[in-house]
Each structure stands twice: as C-alpha cells, then as structure tokens.
Amino acid sequence: MRHLAKILIALCVSSLLHAQQSAHDIMEKVDTNLRGKNVYMQMSMSITSFGHKRTMKMQTWSQGKKKSFVKTIYPPKDAGITFLSLDNQMWQYVPKIERIIKIPPSMMLQNWMGSDITNDDIVKQSSIVDDYNAKIIKQNGKMITIELIPKEDAAVVWGKIISLIDTSNYTDTKDIFYDEEGKEVRTFIYDKVKKVGKYYTPTYWKISPNKVGTQEVFKIMFFLALKNILFYKGRSITTFALTFFSTFSFIVYVAMMDGSHNSILHNALKVYVGAIEIYKKGYREIGGNEYLLYNVHKKEEILKNIEGISSFTSRYETYGLLSSDEYSSAAMVVGINSTKEAQHSQLKNALILGEYLDGSANNCLYAGSDLAKRLHVKLGSKVSFIGSASDNSFAADIFKVCGMFKTGAYEFDSSSAFIDRGYFDTLMLSEDMASYIHVDVANLSDVDMIQQKIQTALDDPELEVLNFRLYLHKSLFCGDIFCDYDI
After folding, report:
1. CA-to-CA distance for 48 and 45, rounded, in angstroms?
2. Using a CB cutoff of 8 Å and minimum separation of 24, what contacts does 54-62 make?
3. Which of 287, 308, 382, 406 could join 369 via S-S bond, C-beta 3.0 to 4.6 A?
4. What is the DSSP letter of 104?
5. How many whole angstroms from its chain centre is CA 306?
C-alpha cells in the first residue's frame, strides 16, 4: 500500500512538471512565431479615443530578440521619427529637433506615440519566455489558457498576463494584462492569422485599455519574414501624490516655526496646490488627455464673479521626456500663466538661478534644480522635449533653460519643469484647455461655502469641485492638520 502511494505521488509530480514544461514550450513556440529570425513588416495603427480617430503607418525591421528598428511614415508631421533598440537600450530620432535621444529604462513602459501601447511593446525589450513563469490553467481542445507570472528578478510591471493560445498554429488569440494589484489594465485581441514562410502570425491586433472609449487597431502587411509589435496612467496620479506629500511635509516644518495652524494651511496650499481644485471627473483616478477641461476661459470668467476667491489659475500638465545632449529624464512639464501663477503659488519665490517666466510666450524652461542636475544642464542649455499633445499626437520641441527653482522637496524639484502657456499651448494643441483649475480663497474658514458656490455657478455634472480636505482624503495623504483641524 505504501509502495502504491509512492507511485501515485511520483506520477502526480511528473504530471505537474510535464504541464509546466508544456506551458513553457507552448510560449516558446508562440514567441518564435511572433519574432522569427529576420523580420520586415509594414503596419498601420488606427487610434480611436472618445470619438476621435487618427491613423499612423510604420515600417519595422528586427533580428531576433535583441535588435529592432521602427520608422514612422505617416502622418506627414510624424514622418521620419524612428526608434532603434539594441540589446536592452533604446534610442529615438526626432527630425523636428534633429536629435537622437536615448530612452531611459524608466520610460520603456510609457505610452508610445500617444497610443495605449508602450515603448516596450514596440521594441520587444521584455520577453514573455525569459521574464515570466508559465502555467496552463485551462484546456479546451486546441485552445489553451496560460497564466504568466513574472519572475522575481524580471524588470516588468505586469503582475500577471493571461494568454489564450491556439495550439493548432501556436498563435496568440487573446492576452489580458493585469497590474500588480490584480486589476485588469488592457486586452490584446489577435485575428486574421496568415502563414509567412514557416511561421503563423496574426495580422490584425486590437488593443483595448480598461477604460471607456479608447482602442488601437493594428493592421499588418508582411513582405519578407515575421514580426512583433500606457499606463499606465496611474503614474501621473501617484507622482502628483508623492510630490504633494513631500512638498507639504517640507512646508509644514517651516510653517510650524510660526506656531499657527492657519499659517501651515495657507503656506502648504500655496506651494503648488490650491484650497479648491476643479477637475473633469475621472482625471484624478485615471488621468490622461481624455479627461482634460475644455472651455477654460469661460469657466475662469465665472470664477471672477464669485465672492471670496482670492486667486485662481489653470495649468496644463503632461508627462514626457526631457533630454540634454547626453542625459535624459522623465518629467512633469507644466504650461502655466506665469503672471497668475506668481500671484497664486510660491513657484516664483522659489527661484534660485536665472529668471522666472516672463509671459512672453517663448521657449524658456523654468526647471527644478534637481532635475537640472539630472540632465547636467545650466542656464542657457538646450533641452529637447518629446511627449504627446492633447489629441495624443506626437509632440517635440527644444526648450532653453532660463531659470531654476528649489522648493526643498526633492520629488518635486527633480521631476518638474514649467513653461509659459502661450508657447506650450501651440506645441500641445491645448488652447482653452487645462488639466485642472486651482482656486485660492481669502479666508479658509469659508472654503466649504465657496466650493458650493463654484459647483453651482459652473453647473456641470461632469466636473468635480473639491476643497483641500476632500481631495487630500481622496489622495490618501490626510494628516491631522488638514483633515481633522476644525476651521
């Protein structure tokens, strides 16, 4: 009996090992179909976002897992933008600014050309086979569902990927991507499989982020061999929260020297945030261009007539890549009305070198001192910018460092830069738009009443009007001074 039990255990273990190896073998075959040895392809990508649609066309070349090259050929304004990947490094050439820019690893998972795919998707830096452990979780004839869990040392952000594989030709039919918290982030659907040489590859890809109204569709034409083709927008919210928290901590320390709770509140709120914030619903939780404010000038005219408001300003925030001749860094670049900002926040007072923005709508950049150190730039240095415009199209330009600021909050000073709205709006196609509007009040004890007045006057169910106590609760950074202090 004991001998029989040992045999059964051995058979079970053998079966499990076989299943795990089978899953790995299947993914290797899928990966080989997808990559091949030498690949050239043409593809078009249609991006639909909240009723707006645009199309891009690209050419790509690749050799195995280590080398790939992508060239944009349409639309004309983006033609000639190229991406080169060698081993684990990536470079981008932008004709408009005549620069070759090295993309840092931290930007590999940023959105590519305003779509919901990533730089990593395009250059295939991470490998399903090398970076994930595979396990079969369901089988229905030739269709097998495989769960992919990242290895401990893998430099990936997906917490899990569920792949539906057709083993009749070893092609992917569907991938579902999950974040580290187990939330579904996006879905890839593959169709119209064609045989190219000895490989099978889907020539139609549909990418659907887990948000309403957006999708990308790839249509691929093969001529020689094979092929391969965010968000994760939550980073913008996370970065903002970290930035605010570190800035707030610094200002609380300084303000406590005055011994006044009200002084703490006023000083903390004047660094970069306001007593009241106005957003489009969804911007704080999801972020992105789909949640921008429109008709901002009209909203500002309404705010002018509300008693108790001492100042307000709108900002256009975006996240992109800033690069000097040799160094690059991801950064939050913000278009501001420099005159209003000087009245509303402490950004001007934080100046340590050069000049504050003068409102002349030029390409002057007002950079955090620690960001300038990262880029190894000084006053007068040229810094290139690449990012996505308000319509998610590609945006690139060269700025000149005219001033540097230091608030003492490292997260803020190392990741933030400002430019005049007049110039930035032209580049980002963001005239009469904003990420949000910040409002300051003459007396903080009136903040609830003024918040209600703003909500009533704007009369728009799509807007979210929050006072500092409410949006700090939502940000999960709610200290005793802000949330429990009775004012």
Report:
1. 10
2. 54/391, 54/392, 54/393, 56/113, 56/115, 60/227, 62/35, 62/38, 62/124, 62/227, 62/228
3. 406
4. P
5. 35
Residue whose tokens read 């540097």: 404
- Report the distance separating Cα 282 and Cα 276, nearest Å: 17
Over 398-420, what HEC string results? EEEEEEEECCCCHHHHCCEEEEE
- CA 352/CA 319 separation, integer angstroms: 24
Amino acid at residue number 208: S
Evaluate if pTM is beyond 0.85: no
pLDDT digits (tens, 9 = 90+) for 239-254: 444 444 444 444 443 4
- The string of DSSP letters for 284-335 reads TTT-SGGG-EE-HHHHHHHHHTSTTEEEEEEEEEEEEEEE-SS-EEEEEEEE
Which tokens hold the place of 347? 């950004």
Strand segments (E) across 406-462: 416-420, 433-434, 436-441
Strand segments (E) across 180-255: 184-196, 199-209, 214-222
Q: Could you identify the residue written with the tokens 């982030």?
A: 185
pLDDT, tens only, 91-109: 888 888 888 888 777 677 6
Look at the alpha carbons of 432, 435, 440, 441 in this order and tell me if their dihedral is positive or negative. positive
